[in-house]
């Protein structure tokens, strides 16, 4: 996810969104048959693309 770092509480917003994505994904099968439940593994900032340095970029 990508959040504009200039918005109020951007660090809190990006972490809250990452937590919500993790909550929804973890152990979810989306009511599909023959698939294993999803497993949340990690969420962290991603500084890989210099062109996105003005934003808070997180991989979930």
Write a concise keyword list for the protein shown above.
single chain, 60 residues, alpha+beta, three-stranded antiparallel β-sheet, 3 strands
Structure description:
The chain contains 1 helix and 3 strands; from the N terminus they run βαββ. It has 60 residues and is an alpha+beta fold. The protein has one domain (2-59). Strands 1-3-2 form a 3-stranded antiparallel beta sheet, covered by helices on one side. It is elongated, with a radius of gyration of 14 Å. The mean pLDDT is 95.
Write the layout of secondary structure elements.
Blueprint: E1 2-4, H1 10-25, E2 44-45, E3 55-59
* Share in helix: 25-40%
Largest sheet, described in full?
A: 3 strands, antiparallel
Strand content: 15-25%
Total separate domains: 1
Average pLDDT reading: 95
Unreliable spans are none
What structural class do the secondary elements suggest? alpha+beta
Strand order within the widest beta sheet? 1-3-2
Shape descriptor reads: elongated
Q: Using the CA coordinates, give the radius of gyration.
A: 14 Å
Q: Encode the helix/strand succession as letters.
A: EHEE
**Total number of helices:** 1
Q: N-to-C terminal Cα separation, in Å?
A: 8 Å
* SS elements, strand count: 3
């Amino acid at each position: 996810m990508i959040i504009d770092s200039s918005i109020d509480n951007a660090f809190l917003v990006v972490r809250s969104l990452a937590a919500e994505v993790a909550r929804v994904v973890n152990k979810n099968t989306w009511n599909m048959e023959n698939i294993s439940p999803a497993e949340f593994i990690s969420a962290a900032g991603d500084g890989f693309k210099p062109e996105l340095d003005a934003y808070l970029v997180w991989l979930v």
